[in-house]
Amino acid sequence: MERVRRGVVVALAMALLVPVSQGQPVVPAVIIFGDSVMDVGNNNHLLTLVKANFPPYGRDFTHHSPTGRFCNGKLASDYTVENLGFTSYPPAYLSKEATGPNLLNGTNFASGASGYLDKTASLYNAISLSQQLKYYKEYQEKVVSMVGKTNASTIFSGGVHFLSAGSSDYIQNYYINPLLYKVYTPDQFADLLVHSFTSFVENLYTLGARRIGVTSLPPLGCLPAAITLFGEGKNRCVQRLNKDAVSFNKKISNATDSLKKKHSDLKLVVLDIYGPLLGLIKNPEQNGFFEARKACCGTGTIETSLLCNKRSPGTCSNATNYVFWDSVHPSEAANKFLSDNLLAQGIDLIS
C-alpha cells in the first residue's frame, strides 16, 4: 500500500513537470552544497582521508567506475537532477569538468565530512560551508562573464539550490569529541548548527538565490556505523541519537518558517529524509529490500570511505536489496526511493 501511495504522489508530481516532456529542464540550473550525501567528486581533489574514488564505490554507476560518490551508484541528488529534466549532472566544482558552458546548468560544491560547523570540515580537511559559499561567489563571476549579468541573475534566482549537512557534525564530531560533548547539550549544539544554517541561507539570498531546498537529518541512530559505535551491543537503532535528529529537524523547520516570513520571495523547503528513511529501515521488505541493519560493503557494520575498499571481506554481490551501501550512506536503490519522496516534497521549489 505504501508503495502504491508513493507512486501516486510521484505521478502527480511528475505531471507538473511539463517542460521535461518537451525536452527542456524545469529550472535553469541546480546548485548543490553540503556533505558526502551530495559529494560527486570534490574530495577527490583534496588531501583528505574521506574519499570514495576507488572500488567498490561506483561499481553500479555509469561505466561501473568510482567517481567520488559515496555510493555504489547514483545519489538521491542525481535522480532529482534527472527528474528535473537535465541530461547531465552538475559537475564537482573542483573537477576539470567544471568549466565553460558546463557551469551554466549548475555545479556541485558538496564535500564529504563537511557540516554546518566549519570546525567539522576542518577536522577532515573537507570544504567547509563557508568555503563552499566563497566558491559559489567565484562560480557566479564565471557565469556572469559568459552570459552577462541579466541572464546570470535569471540563472541564480531560477535555479534550485540544494543543501545537505548536519550528519557529520553529529556523527564525526559531536558524539566522538568529549570536549564538545561536555560543553554543549544536544539542544545547545543543535542551536549552533541552526544558527549556521540561517546564516548560510541569508548569504545565499543576498547572492540572488530564491529557491532553496535543505534536507533534514536522517535517523542518525539507525545508521549501521552509529549502531556499531554507540549502540552498546544492542544491535538496534540508538534512540538518543534519533531523538537528537528529531529535535534538530524541528529547530531547522522553525528557522525555515522565520526566514520565509522575513523574505516573502524566498522559496525555502525542508526536505524530510528522516521519515522516509526510517520507514525504509523499519519495514524494508515492504519496499523491496531485505537488509537494513547491515550495509552491503564489507561486514556492513563499520566500513565507510577507506575502510570500504575492494579488499573488504564480505561485500555483497548485489546491493539492490540493501538500504545502505556502506555503514553511513544509502545504496543506489535506497537513493531512488528517497529521491521520489524528495520530488513530491519539493514541488514548491519548481512551481
From TrEMBL:
<keyword id="KW-0732">Signal</keyword>
<dbReference type="InterPro" id="IPR036514">
    <property type="entry name" value="SGNH_hydro_sf"/>
</dbReference>
<dbReference type="InterPro" id="IPR001087">
    <property type="entry name" value="GDSL"/>
</dbReference>
<feature type="signal peptide">
    <location>
        <begin position="1"/>
        <end position="23"/>
    </location>
</feature>
<dbReference type="InterPro" id="IPR050592">
    <property type="entry name" value="GDSL_lipolytic_enzyme"/>
</dbReference>
<dbReference type="GO" id="GO:0016788">
    <property type="term" value="F:hydrolase activity, acting on ester bonds"/>
</dbReference>
<comment type="similarity">
    <text>Belongs to the 'GDSL' lipolytic enzyme family.</text>
</comment>
<dbReference type="InterPro" id="IPR035669">
    <property type="entry name" value="SGNH_plant_lipase-like"/>
</dbReference>
<dbReference type="Pfam" id="PF00657">
    <property type="entry name" value="Lipase_GDSL"/>
</dbReference>
<protein>
    <recommendedName>
        <fullName>GDSL esterase/lipase</fullName>
    </recommendedName>
</protein>
